[in-house]
């Protein structure tokens, strides 16, 4: 569960850089006259990227004014979507999924590791490197438990491999995203245990040569054509 409220300390103002302003105007042109508000998510996202990963209150007003939207509409959007951060985040922003599949597979242990190595939820470390929060399902349940760190997913986590990721990031190393237990994407953990008979793949052009030892060419027998039953003549 995430608490969504504006940071206590806010900057004086916000404005897009010239390059971002040009980009924003091009985004707005994608929509018909009177529908400029449709660009709201992309503009907020760009504003957040420009401001080190979080949206200050002046940025909300700035985007609202650009799109001729009521401030409350922008506030509704940014307090609904957890992709928008309303307070400063660390250079490595760790989003821990706490929804049911991840929770059943050990998300609580991952949160404990965050508390141990980063600190309390939604607090930035003194060196500015890390902060963490809990979010709802990030759509990678098959690799639960998982976290998103900046843009990347780190999956199949254990406290051990997760702590190692944090240590390596802190040391300035690149850490390969994806499953951390060696499996390929979401293939069965530990390897396949069903459909392992090579004969099943005999007709697969990428499989063994047909007729080679150990393979069976599977040919489906054609079914006899069904014929319509003859009608009996009615007695005249
Ligand atoms: S429940 Fe964690 S990714 Fe879906």
CATH class of the domain at 92-179: Alpha Beta
Q: What would you say the CATH architecture of the domain at 92-179 is?
A: 3-Layer(aba) Sandwich
The chain-level structural class is alpha/beta
Helix share, percent: 25-40%
- CATH fold description of the domain at 92-179: Glutaredoxin
Name the hetero compounds present: FE2/S2 (inorganic) cluster
Describe this structure in words.
Among the domains are: 18-80, Arc Repressor Mutant, subunit A; 92-179, Glutaredoxin (3-Layer(aba) Sandwich), CATH 3.40.30.10. The protein is built from seven helices and five strands, in the order H-H-H-H-E-H-H-E-E-E-H-E. The radius of gyration is 28 Å and the shape is globular. Helix content is 30%, strand content 9%. A five-stranded mixed β-sheet has the order 2-1-3-4-5, with helices on one face. It has 236 residues and is of the alpha/beta class. Bound molecules: FE2/S2 (inorganic) cluster. FE2/S2 (inorganic) cluster binds at residues 97, 99, 101-102, 137-141, 144, 146.
What is shown here, in short?
It is built from 7 helices and 5 strands; from the N terminus they run ααααβααβββαβ. It has helices at 18-28, 40-50, 57-67, 71-80, 100-104, 107-117, 159-170, and strands at 92-97, 130-135, 147-149, 152-155, 178-179. The longest helix is centred in the last third of the chain and has 12 residues, at 159-170.
């Amino acid at each position: 569960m995430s608490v969504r409220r504006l940071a206590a300390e806010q900057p004086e103002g916000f404005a897009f850089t010239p390059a971002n302003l040009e980009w924003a105007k091009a985004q707005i042109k994608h929509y018909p006259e009177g529908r400029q508000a449709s660009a709201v998510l992309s503009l907020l996202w760009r504003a957040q990227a420009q401001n080190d990963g979080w949206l200050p209150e002046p940025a909300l007003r700035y985007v609202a004014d650009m799109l001729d939207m009521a401030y409350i509409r922008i506030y509704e959007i940014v307090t609904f979507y957890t992709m928008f951060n309303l307070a400063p985040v660390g250079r490595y922003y760790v989003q821990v999924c706490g929804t049911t599949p991840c929770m059943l597979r050990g998300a609580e242990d991952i949160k404990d590791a965050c508390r141990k190595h980063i600190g309390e939820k939604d607090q930035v470390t003194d060196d500015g490197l890390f902060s963490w929060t809990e979010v709802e399902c990030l759509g990678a349940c098959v690799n639960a438990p998982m976290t998103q760190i900046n843009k990347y997913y780190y999956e199949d986590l254990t406290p051990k491999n997760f702590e190692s990721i944090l240590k390596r990031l802190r040391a300035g190393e690149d850490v390969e995203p994806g499953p951390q237990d060696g499996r390929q994407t979401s293939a069965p953990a530990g390897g396949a245990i069903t459909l392992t008979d090579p004969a099943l793949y005999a007709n697969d052009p990428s499989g063994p040569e047909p007729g080679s030892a150990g393979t069976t060419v599977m040919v489906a027998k054609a079914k006899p054509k069904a014929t319509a039953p003859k009608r009996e003549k009615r007695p005249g």
